[in-house]
Write a sequence for this structure.
């Protein structure tokens, strides 16, 4: 079916390229905060479809849609009621198909989010499990255990959940179920054959509809060793078992699951791709990224790094090496729906405790926004020059900052409640995008947005930036266009190492240089293709990246930089 759709649309060239993902620019859309077509304050699929030309003009190769499935939104849609449907509040399956077709016609591929570690508590399986007795087949799809104490009134262990609070929830008959995230997200039992088979059906369901790839949520947690005796939380946190493994994370058996998924991906032409969200140590990443597994894995190392040349250099070297080891290409990420936006992180001193900073309303220390945006642009331009794929998060191209002062009553992230108000959570990077400089939700929709937007969004609106060549949006468009022109094979050569400078060359004479220091450094020779901030004659100012190419190549390029 996928080929038929592609052919009907005249996009055979999309179908033909097996390696499209290796150096793709993938733009993450958080659908409920992107564009709202019907004024109910919630972004929707027709809203995304209405902005396909925006995505095309931006120059991205693919979009990754965060979950758009039916959900009570206990965790922003990562609590899925039904994996093979669209949340009726944000669209229909037909609208999904239209969106895929429209994106494909614009030359943009589609990656969808798959959430296999847990369903929502409204999923039909979980409802069946609750209705069925202890020890039943229906309960075996999840992780139920008898409670401790005579009546099972104590949880099986003292484990804590990611969003705070206990990881076990009682169901009233002495059984408890495991939820490593919110109580509305019961963990699935991946040792259960039905669970395995059903996910293969889900993967085929979306692949048949023309979806090009999958982003796999908490990919490192599906396989668990729950043999008795279960360890205590202290033993879990102490770093695992004597053989170096952990009971719940990154177990080798998880790759048996992904080998089955890979077989399904390879039934398609081109093979469907996948990228693992696996928070594992760098050296464990190639297992997820291998060709008989998911094929690619997120590398969050730059996202977690300080603004520091030596750190960037080391991370880049290590990840290119790891990518080579797995046969995959590396991934580069600075922002997503789970972390403080990078323009804000770089506005704060290295080492700032972001949780404490958010809890204080984002005022101590006071962010230096000018520096933050300058560094964010420099970091992005550096990453866009690297071999591998770049994952961008909606709004970073508008230079959006974290909205750190959302009123407590507006917060939606389960972290806020589950931590008893000691962690603000992730809403500040999920505030709906500003499209116009005025209007009830800055053009996001006709009504107020589901998370309040600050007045400063007016200046960041697409409308305010589109025609301004100095804007961050114009900068992203140029960077993506130049990358498309310059990107070749996946090799990189370092220039001589200098303190505070990251400088490397790519095939064809393209070079990228970043100044992490606080004094200007001389610009290397060559013609400046693009810079992340203003240049100072023949000097590269602090917090700035420039791309250069040999003078002689001038005649070959399209005139897209001015
Ligand atoms: C992933 C998602 C995050 C979600 C969690 C549980 O980390 O990115 O948003 O809360 O998984 O599904
Ligand atoms: Ca809507």
């Amino acid at each position: 079916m996928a080929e038929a759709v592609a052919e009907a649309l005249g996009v055979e060239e999309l179908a033909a390229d097996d390696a499209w993902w290796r150096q793709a620019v993938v733009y993450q859309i958080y659908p409920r905060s992107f564009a709202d077509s019907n004024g109910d304050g919630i972004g929707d699929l027709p809203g995304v479809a209405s902005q396909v030309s925006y995505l095309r003009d931006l120059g991205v190769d693919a979009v990754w849609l965060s979950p758009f499935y039916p959900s009570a939104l206990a965790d922003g849609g990562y609590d899925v009621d039904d994996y093979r449907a669209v949340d009726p509040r944000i669209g229909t399956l037909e609208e999904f198909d239209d969106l895929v077709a429209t994106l494909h016609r614009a030359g943009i591929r589609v990656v969808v989010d798959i959430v296999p570690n847990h369903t929502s508590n409204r999923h039909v399986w979980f409802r069946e499990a609750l209705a069925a007795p202890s020890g039943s087949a229906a309960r075996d799809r999840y992780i139920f255990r008898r409670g401790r104490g005579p009546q099972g009134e104590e949880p099986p262990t003292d484990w804590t959940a990611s969003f705070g609070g206990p990881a076990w929830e009682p169901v009233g008959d002495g059984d408890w179920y495991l939820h490593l995230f919110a109580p509305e997200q019961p963990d699935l039992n991946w040792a259960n054959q039905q669970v395995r088979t059903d996910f293969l059906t889900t993967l085929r369901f979306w692949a048949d509809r023309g979806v090009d790839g999958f982003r796999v949520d908490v990919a490192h947690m599906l396989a668990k060793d729950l043999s008795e005796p279960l360890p205590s939380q202290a033993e879990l946190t102490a770093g695992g078992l004597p053989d170096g493994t952990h009971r719940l994370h990154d177990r080798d058996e998880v790759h048996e699951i992904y080998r089955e998924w890979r077989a399904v991906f390879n039934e398609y032409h081109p093979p469907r791709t996948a990228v693992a969200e696996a928070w594992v140590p760098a050296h464990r990443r190639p297992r997820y990224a291998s060709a008989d597994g998911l094929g690619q894995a997120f590398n969050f190392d730059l996202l977690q790094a300080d603004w520091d040349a030596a750190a960037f250099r080391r991370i880049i070297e290590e990840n290119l090496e790891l990518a080579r080891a797995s046969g995959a290409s590396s991934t580069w990420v600075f922002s997503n729906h789970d972390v403080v936006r990078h323009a804000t992180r770089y506005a704060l001193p290295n080492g700032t405790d972001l949780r404490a900073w958010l809890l204080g309303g984002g005022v101590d220390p006071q962010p230096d926004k000018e520096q933050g945006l300058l560094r964010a642009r420099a970091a992005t331009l550096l990453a866009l020059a690297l071999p591998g794929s770049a994952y961008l998060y909606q709004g970073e191209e508008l230079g959006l900052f974290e909205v750190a002062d959302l009123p407590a009553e507006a917060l939606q992230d389960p972290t806020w409640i589950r931590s008893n108000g000691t962690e603000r959570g992730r809403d500040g990077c999920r505030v709906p995008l500003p499209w116009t400089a005025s209007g009830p939700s800055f053009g996001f929709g006709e009504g107020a947005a589901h998370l309040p937007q600050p007045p400063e969004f007016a200046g960041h609106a697409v409308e305010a930036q589109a025609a301004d060549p100095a804007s961050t949006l114009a900068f992203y468009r140029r960077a993506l266009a130049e990358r498309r022109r310059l990107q070749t094979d996946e090799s990189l050569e370092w220039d001589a190492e200098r303190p505070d400078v990251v400088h490397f060359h790519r095939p064809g004479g393209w070079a990228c240089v970043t100044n992490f220091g606080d004094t200007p450094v001389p610009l290397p020779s060559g013609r400046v293709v693009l810079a992340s901030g203003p240049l100072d004659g023949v000097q590269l100012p602090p917090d700035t990246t420039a791309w250069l190419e040999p003078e002689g190549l001038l005649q070959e390029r399209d005139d897209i930089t001015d």
